[in-house]
Design a protein that fits this description.
binds protoporphyrin IX containing FE; 11 strands; Cytochrome p450; three-stranded antiparallel beta sheet; about 10% strand
Amino acid sequence: MSATTSTPSGDKTSKKAKKGAVADRRLPRPPRVPGGLPVLGHALDMRRSPVELFQRGRDLFGDVFSIGLPGTTGVMMSGPKAQQKFFRMKDTDVDLRETYKLMTPIFGKGIAYDAEPEVMKEQLAFFHDALREHRLKTYAQGFVEEAEQFFGTWGDEGEVDLYEMGNQLTIYTSSRSLLGPKFREQLSDEFAKLYYEMEGGLNLLAFFAPNMPMVPAFKKRDRARKRLGELIAEIVRERRAKNDNSSEDFLQTLMDATYKDGRKLTEDEMTGLLLAIMFAGHHTSGVTVAWTGILLNQNPEWIGKLRAEQERVLGGRTDLTLEDLKSMTLLEWSIKETLRMYPPIIVMMRRVLKAFDYAGYHIEEGSMIMTSPAMAHRIPEVFPNPGKFDPERWSPERDADKKNPMSWIAFGGGRHRCLGIVFAQLQLRAVWSHLLRHFDFELVEPRYEPDYSRLLVGPRLPCRVRYKRRK
Ligand code: HEM
């Protein structure tokens, strides 16, 4: 079925709706994917095999269809036009905060998605400040040094789990860049353990009932949050006591930041925001490190091309700079292609605050609109031969994204597009630049598949590879 054929009036929004007139209740509702259960709707399918469910809907109905969710209806919008509509909707018309309420027990009350819209906007602006171009040089330096240190401890040969390796390494790179080398040094095994315990509380149940009592994963999450808050607050206080404002990191940005009304951030707000940025950037980057390794080794001709590029950019140099990372074009395409095939965020959602009409359908207030990078990135009309790892599809001559804006949505789109996009890309390039130059890998698992039981989707465990240090 084509990407745009199956709605009552194609992908044209009615003139009335375009002008912002009242939505037309007489229009049909988006067709519903068959199956599902009373009350739970398609929640179990969402948990077991979400992309299969979405694809089933798209195969049956095209760009717009609905699924049942507990207590509401999910309206999937896929295909470039529908995705543009999704990402261009205003915060006054759709609310993304509610869909992130599972994060509130981790970030804290009044932080990020739990804050009032105006406050959240200001907090996002703090993130923006911390991720500015002039800071990238320091961050890039940190990525390179962390990679050298991390892989320096590996032997001449051995076996590692790529998933675990990616997550371990990026917890160091992110925390160092965002919170400073001092924080990084103090990262104990305890810190990593607590972090993963909080992450264990991010499951589908947390979407609908983040504070359901007696759920072991939630109890662990809350204990870990409390302890981690103490660890971070200690470092904040230490800096304040020393009156030290010389650091070039996210923590310093928060310590210097002021809300528009002149108020400084409280310690708890800082802790919450530090956790928010850690969560946004850590696991997403970690699983992408792993998938990049898997895809490159499944397509070894690309390892050759990327090594030639390393040679071209660096010659024999080992003192990598921000400029070097920016010049690694083939590596950039390879990572973009990895994120096309295996985006860590497989679905984004917003609660509809104001009913609207789209593609001949009436989308009701209270429903959840959704879009899915994992499905969108495999639409053959947009990405020919979608199952093929083909980094050259990102070359300027072929760039699929330019032909169809918002078709590649691994980092989202529009006003809430990922703020860490450049940061993440540089980090991933620094890690793979190091690995390509220093190690050969061999895949050992019979299959490497996405594990949909986690909200941030990475390869299923075990995800081992054999490595050998290059001479
Ligand atoms: C491969 C790595 C990453 C991926 C795939 C990714 C993906 C995304 C996506 C899809 C969104 C939009 C969510 C939505 O619209 O509902 C988003 C938002 C965001 N990301 Fe990332 N991200 C990555 C790394 C990072 C890093 C490293 C940081 C910070 C250092 C970061 C900070 C943020 C922030 C602050 C937002 C919220 C933006 C807003 O709501 O306006 N991300 N990310």
